[in-house]
Amino acid sequence: MASQENRLRTLLLTLFAAIAVLLACIGLCGTLSYLGRLRQRKVGVRLALGAMRNQIVAQFLRQGLLVAIVGCAAGVALGMGL
Fold first, then answer.
1. Are 71 and 28 in contact (CB under 8 A)?
2. What confidence tens digit (pLDDT) does each residue in 46-60 have?
């Protein structure tokens, strides 16, 4: 009987953790999409002035990685605090 209760608790905890990760991924995707949309004109100007596409992609990747790292650091700090 106790084993079944532990399995149910584990299953529920796993389900809630998976939902939390999914929501975090959706939020990150929305944030990066918003940042990309804000810089759409700048990208067009840079391309017109002769910037290389790989430089622009690298800049977006760095910016996205920075957002992800800041979010992870804040999550870890809040998790440790609670």
1. yes
2. 888 888 889 988 988
